[in-house]
Amino acid sequence: MTTKISTAVLQGGNPSDDTITTVHPDIIQTHILTRLDGASLASLACASSLFHALSAEENLWKNICAFTWPSINHPRVQEIISTFPFGHRSFFSDSFPFPDSQPSKLDVNNLTLPTELIYAVDIYYQGKIIYSKVEEMETSSIWFLCSPFRVDLLDSKDSAPTPIKYFGDSKHDKWLKDLEENLTLSWIVIDPTRKNAVNVSSRSAISVQRHWLTGDVHVRFGTVMKGDGRRGSSRELVECGVVVTCGGKEGGEMHVREASMVMEDMEGKGLNGKDTLVILEGVMENSRRKKRNENEGKEKYEEFEERKRERKEMKQRKERALDLVCITIGVACFVTFWSAMLFRLRP
Predict the structure, then answer these.
(1) How far apart are CA 78 and CA 87, in angstroms?
(2) 271-305 as b/e: b if 16+ CB within 10 A
(3) Any residues with CB less than 8 A from the CB of 38 and at least 6 apart, and which?
(4) What distance in Å separates the CA atoms of residue 326 and residue 57, rounded to the nearest whole number?
């Protein structure tokens, strides 16, 4: 395919018959490629061998990643990204698209689980960063592997102030809608050993609820993926859920009080550390990624919740049927016993 882009157009003038090859590569890199976001740069790299070569520059991808996810400027994260096969370009290709909902099948018996995971978290409001943090977690201890999986970014006594105004009951519905539309989250899980990463957040909120007692607002993000169970089991699907808890005083600053991540099955039970690692490794090992669709996360979450509700109702029906059988057997035994007793007492 011949790439025809006139020099005049690139310089803001009128089109001509010149090709892009007449523009010096330094000008393309300095004045054109630096203005593109990651998705546009990746698309441009497929247009021609020239663009592919120019767009492979590490500094381009480093700047794009740093702008997209400010948390990765942490020295430890930068050190790990430098070991990826193609540096920041590899990191972007892992972290920007949505993960495939079906993880790779791994041989659990021969799988070497990571001894450490790193979480790079960024919270945005109207596209502007309001909170960033990097959390390192040791994952080889027996306590971690056997305990319910949970990551807490903030201590219970800490909170992070934001420039967002907090509104209570006076503008309750409107403010919750505003948070649902404008609060976004990136939660990147990094495996330093295998040198890969995945973004497990739905980006946009999938639900926003206000706690009836404390008044805190719980903004939920999440990704639904295939679990490690057979069809029909409680782990046929699992949800990697992230809840951001916000609070504050009426008219004052909104504070991020808590940001936590858990992995739950279709019965709402939390997975332990080992099972979570197996699923996350399967997602990261799967090289397939999907184009960004901001509404897909909410749709899958609603389907997941519907499946959970149906499963709960089915379980309740089975329990009621079992109770009815037990009651029937009990009544039958009672009647039989007293019938036998009366029969014996008859002269």
Answers:
(1) 9
(2) bebbbbbbbbbbbbbbeebeeeeeebbbebbeebe
(3) 61, 64, 65, 68, 92, 96
(4) 72
Give the whole-angstrom CA distance, residue 89 versus residue 82. Answer: 10
Q: Residue 269: CB partners within 8 Å, gap ≥ 6? A: 234
Dihedral of the alpha carbons of 328, 330, 335, 341, in degrees to the nearest 10: 160
On whether the CB atoms of residues 123 and 129 are closer than 8 A, the answer is: yes
Residues in the chain: 347
Could you tell me the two tokens for 76? 């430890």
Query: Tokens standing for 308?
Result: 């959970």
In the sheet that holds 128-138, the strands lie side by side as: 128-138, 116-125, 183-191, 196-199
Picking from 241, 236, 243, the residue whose alpha carbon sits closest to that of residue 307 is 236
Question: From the DSSP assignment, how many helices (H) and strands (E) are in the chain?
Answer: 11, 12
Quote the DSSP letter at residue 30. Answer: I
Q: Which residues are CB-neighbours of 58 under 8 A, at least 6 positions away?
A: 87, 88, 89
* Residue that the structure tokens 């295939």 belong to: 226
Task: Round to whole Å and give the CA distance between 212 and 156.
Answer: 19
Q: Which single residue is written with the structure tokens 């939660």?
A: 187
Which residue, among 312, 299, 301, 220, has the nearest Cα to 258 in the 3D structure? 220
> Which of the four pLDDT bands, split at 50, 70 and 90, describes residue 3?
very low
| In contact, 253 and 165? CB cutoff 8 Å | yes
Per the listing, tokens 């039989």 go with 336
pLDDT digits (tens, 9 = 90+) for 241-297: 999 998 888 778 888 889 999 999 888 889 999 999 988 888 888 755 656 566 777
Separation between Cα atoms, residue 220 and residue 204, nearest integer Å? 9
Spacing of C-alpha 58 from chain mean position: 26
If one compares 274 and 108, the residue with the highest pLDDT of the two is 274
> With the CA atoms of 167, 169, 174 and 180 taken in that order, what torsion angle do they form, in degrees rounded to the nearest 10?
70
Tokens 């903004």, located at residue = 219
Distance CA 58, CA 36 (A): 14
